[in-house]
Automatic annotation (TrEMBL):
Name assigned to this protein: RimJ/RimL family protein N-acetyltransferase
PANTHER family with a match to the protein in the record: ACETYLTRANSFERASE (PTHR43441:SF10), RIBOSOMAL-PROTEIN-SERINE ACETYLTRANSFERASE (PTHR43441)
GO molecular function: protein N-terminal-serine acetyltransferase activity; protein-N-terminal-alanine acetyltransferase activity
Gene3D superfamilies according to UniProt: 3.40.630.30
Length: 171
């Protein structure tokens, strides 16, 4: 399965320039667990996403714009089969923001995770100083569940995180 409903598809090696462009955007610096500073790094990032998918441990998809070009990422990771849970994350290049693509991608991903991966609960979190990410989560049907105080640390500063979740039984 390489594509989900025309809006999401597996990352391809030829998408590495998109990943590199994303990693170079100032707002995106914290979205990558490893440094993506070169095209080789971006190619390795894509290869790792494909390896995760093949192993069934995480599922990352390129978010496509109306022209079919990759403009972002949506993923379910930390898949825990016993409790049927997963962690959702998403990012978009600046040119893809403000069009509803992230929320739409999260809705499609959630439906796929519930139906194809038999997950029951999907969670996500965002820094409280990121209202755009909150709007994406709520629009995608993820209910607010609470605040995790000082959960993340970047550059010596701690950030509170708001937790959201969506269940397979949610409307």
């Amino acid at each position: 399965m390489d594509e989900i409903s025309g809006t999401l598809r597996m990352w391809k090696p030829s998408d590495a320039p998109v990943v590199l462009a994303a990693a170079r955007e100032p707002l995106m610096a914290r979205q990558f667990a490893t440094s993506v500073d070169t095209l080789d790094d971006a190619e390795a990032w894509v290869a790792a996403r494909r390896d995760d998918h093949a192993a069934g441990r995480a599922f990352a998809f390129a978010v496509l714009d109306e022209a079919g070009s990759a403009v972002g990422n949506v993923a379910v990771s930390n898949v825990e089969r016993r409790h049927q849970t997963g962690w959702v994350s998403y990012w978009l290049l600046e040119r893809g923001r403000g069009q509803g693509l992230a929320a739409g991608a999260c809705r499609v991903l959630a439906r796929w995770a519930f139906e194809e991966q038999q997950l029951f609960r999907l969670e996500l979190g965002h820094r409280v100083d990121n209202p755009a990410s909150c709007r994406v989560a709520v629009s995608a049907g993820f209910a607010v569940e609470g605040l995790e105080r000082a959960k993340l640390q970047y550059g010596g500063t701690r950030f509170d995180v708001e937790r959201h979740a969506r269940l397979a039984t949610d409307a």
